Amino acid sequence: ETGVTQTPRHLVMGMTNKKSLKCEQHLGHNAMYWYKQSAKKPLELMFVYNFKEQTENNSVPSRFSPECPNSSHLFLHLHTLQPEDSALYLCASSQARIRAYEQYFGPGTRLTVT
Amino acid sequence: QQQVKQSPQSLIVQKGGISIINCAYENTAFDYFPWYQQFPGKGPALLIAIRPDVSEKKEGRFTISFNKSAKQFSLHIMDSQPGDSATYFCAASQGSSNTGKLIFGQGTTLQVKP
């Protein structure tokens, strides 16, 4: 595997379900990010982790719970989501601090909440 | 203050023509301005980036022009090709804050007709 991988690529879940999105980066980076991409809206930064520590929570509802067990893996735990949470969820990684604007994105997980 | 405004929303260009996408920002604390390219089914990929102390940066057919006083920057794609058809996002980063926080524009969908 190379780059940034995300699983699953597609997910359909009911409003009462609990599911998790997984991201893995094979680039030796030490910063990881979750973004939400909705139609007709800019990419929205959700969370930032630097060296496994959360450094940014962009006012994300608590029904989204991130976890970063090490610099290579990032999870997004989902529970009691709303239909408006349906979107493409993108994971990205970069070198922390130096050139942090140079982010490498995975292909995303297309989430549909029914 | 934190927004980056991008225009046009969509753009159709003939093969060989010049594609121009514009962005504007308000926050003078931004100090990196990357452009990302996204193909359907893929995550965004860094295309080119510029710092505000540089007025122009060119990489191959892609050029960023930066006007610090007007707080505007633009992407020019010279000799546009059908393979350039994608969605383009401008972004701004407070690199000096080292958080990796990127603020994205709304995106421009470019179609290059053969």
Task: Please give the largest β-sheet of chain B.
Answer: 6 strands, mixed
- Order of helix and strand elements from N to C terminus of chain B: EEEEEEEEEEE
Uncertain segments of chain B: none
Count of helical stretches of chain A: 0
Q: What is the subunit organization of this protein?
A: heterodimer
Distance between the termini of chain A: 32 Å
Number of helices of chain B: 0
Biggest sheet statistics of chain A: 7 strands, mixed
Mean pLDDT across the residues of chain B is 92
Structural class of chain B: mainly beta
Q: How big a fraction of the residues of chain A is strand?
A: over 45%
- Uncertain runs of chain A are none
- What is the arithmetic mean of pLDDT of chain A? 93
Shape assignment of chain B:
globular
Total beta-strand segments of chain A: 11
Overall SS class of chain A: mainly beta
* Helix percentage of chain B: under 10%
What labels describe this entry?
heterodimer, A: 114 residues, mainly beta, seven-stranded mixed sheet, four-stranded antiparallel sheet, 11 strands, 0% helix, B: mainly beta, six-stranded mixed sheet, five-stranded antiparallel sheet, globular
Task: Write up what this structure looks like.
The complex is a heterodimer of chains A (114) and B (114). The relative contact order of chain A is 0.33. The mean pLDDT of chain A is 93. Chain A is 0% helix and 56% strand. Chain A has no helices and 11 strands. Chain A has strands at residues 4-7, 10-13, 18-25, 31-37, 44-50, 53-57, 64-70, 73-79, 87-94, 104-105, 109-113. In chain A, strands 2, 4, 5, 6, 9, 10 and 11 form a 7-stranded mixed β-sheet that branches. Chain A is an all-beta fold. Chain B has strands at 4-7, 10-14, 19-25, 33-38, 45-50, 56-59, 62-67, 72-77, 86-93, 102-104, 108-113. Chain B has no helices and 11 strands. Chain B is mainly β and 114 residues long. In chain B, strands 2, 4, 5, 9, 10 and 11 form a 6-stranded mixed β-sheet that branches. In chain B, strands 1-3-8-7-6 form a 5-stranded antiparallel β-sheet, with no helix packed on it. The model of chain B has no long low-confidence stretch (mean pLDDT 92). Chain B is globular and about 40 Å long. Chain A binds chain B through residues 4, 31, 33, 40-43, 45, 48, 50, 55-56, 90, 92, 94, 96-97, 100-108, and chain B through 4, 32, 34, 36, 41-46, 49, 89, 91, 93, 95, 98-107.
